[in-house]
Amino acid sequence: MDSVFVKDISVPTLLLDETKCKSNITRIFSKVKAMGIDFRPHFKTHQSKYIGKWFWDLGIRRITVSSLKMAKYFLQSGWNDILIAFPINIRELDEYLLYANQINLKITISDIEALGFLSKVLTFPIEIYLEVDVWSVRSGFDIDNLTEIDRALKVISKSKFIKLVGIIAHNSNVYSCRSPEEVCESNKKFLSKLFDLKNYLIMKGYNIQLSVGDTPSASICDDFTGIDELRPGNFVFYDVMQVAIGSCSVDDIAVCLAVPIVAIYPHRNEIVCHGGAIHLSKDFIKIEEMDIFGLVVDIQENTWTSPIEETFVKSLYQEHLVIKTTPEFIAQHRVGDLIGILPIHSCLTAEAMKKYLIPNLAWVDHL
Amino acid sequence: MDSVFVKDISVPTLLLDETKCKSNITRIFSKVKAMGIDFRPHFKTHQSKYIGKWFWDLGIRRITVSSLKMAKYFLQSGWNDILIAFPINIRELDEYLLYANQINLKITISDIEALGFLSKVLTFPIEIYLEVDVWSVRSGFDIDNLTEIDRALKVISKSKFIKLVGIIAHNSNVYSCRSPEEVCESNKKFLSKLFDLKNYLIMKGYNIQLSVGDTPSASICDDFTGIDELRPGNFVFYDVMQVAIGSCSVDDIAVCLAVPIVAIYPHRNEIVCHGGAIHLSKDFIKIEEMDIFGLVVDIQENTWTSPIEETFVKSLYQEHLVIKTTPEFIAQHRVGDLIGILPIHSCLTAEAMKKYLIPNLAWVDHL
């Protein structure tokens, strides 16, 4: 591959800081290992074979993905223990079964009807995780409805081929936390509810794994006793949302959208760049009633600075972004300069950009 | 091309209703023609050569795009009068000049420094539009700052090669309107401000075109006297946001995201589908303090129904969407069914999906 120099970039480009990214991976992996918990990182954030290899090289062999398409992509690059942590889509059943025949594919069951359907068509054993919904109100069997969970267990027990290996849950509620204390409080309640369920299942004769995964709790909390598997994903890059939650420092963020300045308006203290909703995605955080669509950094040789003070992306159009800043920052920049935007939600920015540039080194693939 | 049947879809797929789309194009084109105004539709919404041809077949020859990349794409399929309605990015200047040598390429100037830079490097004539900002606080010369506009005119008058052909402006403020009356009131003030500028420029000896373009005013308002060129874009598909503004009826929306149901939770009156922020984008509208990420329809042979009552996308994750609905709708659907989501912002949904399916006919390209 030819080297690509940051100075040669002319359009919005997602930069990846290899050092920060590897350090994020190592930090979380070491922590999980030290706790004696299995690590099954979620690859939906980076969706990259190249970055996947950094995990592989550390000895990590189990991964999580969020779609069949993503499972196929990683399967093709050699991963062979993959959990699809998304409710099985029975319209794609043939393809699920195809891959289940090739590798150790684990499927998520979140609905009683889908489970019944699967039980009717299987002709060989398959490992499933039952998804439970612990007050996230997204997908999964309601953890407060044991009758429904019992119905699922009944279908499983009658099936010759369905093998229940685990309970999977995701605590969406940590995303509304705004301090480490809130995250750990939320995580504690979440885990305690899961332990009750595990005990209930043990009484019924099921020896199952408990698998949970969110970046805030994996980054912040220390007590996962009783949990068998952790599967966070976003930590590989982190983002401004994770900084707001307290999961990381702003200098841990490993991706940054390089954008060219196309107009400067000193009378408004505003700068317009090429780079919009189609590059960053439209996630935002609210700070003091203001919507913030990204933080702003200066780009350096192989990395970028900490965020510039009193400077942020205040609005986002299809291809424009408008930065509110200070006279000092304006005085230091000219039309045609490249600056960097730290994304609010790096998973969606990576998905929108579809490739990464490791500055002065190489382009890196994305599904 | 092989026909693709809706019944064979298994993953999120953006359906395009050719009849609705062509009718949207014809309606706006006829209206603009009847007003005696030039039509230069913005192709940033559809970004499709295939759909572009529907415009070409009506005799339309001038188009607007929002990036150099998009200009290149349409230039390669035969369009040769293209306005890039985005502030010139001087890092891509060589490529602008390359295309300007091949076709009638019009460039947008929104910043005094970029203009100065252009004036220094040109070696052949180029047509520019000066972008003015009429209280949108996005890009363009502040219309209330004639001193700055005069500075730009001075640079232009000194240049041998820069030919000022028009003033371009976009009224972002119509997007916060919530009735046709509000849109026309906003449009009237916007146009009146532009007429003052045009008169000022005429006094200074500049014979320029006034070019404006937004889908709400182009769809709703009847008086554009004094305007030379209209360049709306979104009308080709419309979306739920445009319905909220009053630009169209919900049955005019020409794209719909087909999504498979993966879980049904009757106790919550909620349905989960495969289809998330990476498919729809995260734009939303607020109705009675609720964030709504899409309306829900049933899919029919070649099209879809009107939106289902009391049913909407209430939350959107990377790959999941959660629909709030009624017991009646739940009773009529099963896991594995396909349903349709009308997007809040069709430009971003089309950009995220990157291709369209005309049901039972063909896949259609997107840049």
Please provide a written account of the structure.
Two copies of one chain form a homodimer. Chain A is an alpha/beta fold. Chain A has two domains: 6-11 and 254-365, Lyase, Ornithine Decarboxylase, Chain A, domain 1; 18-237, Alpha-Beta Barrel (TIM Barrel). Chain A is 32% helix and 26% strand. Chain A has twelve helices and 20 strands. In chain A, strands 2, 3, 4, 5, 6, 7, 8, 9 and 10 form a nine-stranded parallel β-sheet that branches. In chain A, helix 5 (112-121) links the parallel strand 5 (104-109) and strand 6 (126-133). In chain A, helix 5 (112-121) packs parallel to helix 6 (146-158). Chain A is elongated and about 70 Å long. The two termini of chain A are 19 Å apart. The model of chain A has no long low-confidence stretch (mean pLDDT 96).
**Tally of DSSP helical segments of chain A:** 12
Shape type of chain A: elongated
Largest interface: A-B, 56 and 55 residues
Overall mean pLDDT of chain A = 96
Strands, helices and their partners?
The structure is a homodimer of 367-residue chains.
Chain A: E1 13-16, H1 18-34, E2 38-39, H2 49-56, E3 63-65, H3 68-75, E4 81-87, H4 93-102, E5 104-109, H5 112-121, E6 126-133, E7 141-142, H6 146-158, E8 162-169, H7 180-203, E9 209-212, H8 215-220, E10 229-230, H9 240-245, E11 255-265, E12 270-274, H10 277-280, E13 285-287, E14 290-292, E15 294-298, E16 312-316, E17 320-324, H11 327-331, E18 338-343, H12 346-353, E19 355-358, E20 362-365
Parallel strand pairs in A: 2-10, 3-4, 4-5, 5-6, 6-7, 6-8, 8-9, 9-10
Antiparallel strand pairs in A: 1-11, 11-12, 11-18, 12-17, 13-14, 15-18, 16-17, 19-20
Helix pairs in contact in A: 5-6
